[in-house]
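Project standup — Tuesday

K.O.: blocked on the structure for the chain from last sprint. Re-posting the sequence here as requested.
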Amino acid sequence: MYKVILVFILFLPITALAQNLEREAYDQVVANAKKCSEGVISGQKRINCWVKAAPEKCENIVLDMFHDRMNRLKHRKKLYSCVATCVDAGFLSRKFGQCSTSL
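H.V.: unblocked you, prediction finished:
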């Protein structure tokens, strides 16, 4: 029993750190999208900002988020999960691959 508690205590900070990194990555995507779309009147240009801010592999989720307004919260959760998968991606993936962004 004590071994299980010890293992739990040792990995708890690692899990919390991973969740913080995921949240920071998601918040950065949102901040970049909002900054890009400041002063933009056109709906399509605003959507383009969000697509450019998200990792390449998450672009379809962003499009779904805007086109399926009834389920926007569900799509935001999917976007968060997608962005979270890029947190520990390698340098090449983040700069040139599936986890790269245009902003």
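K.O.: great, moving the ticket to review. Residues 2-36 form the longest helix (35 residues). The CA atoms of residues 21 and 87 lie 7 Å apart.
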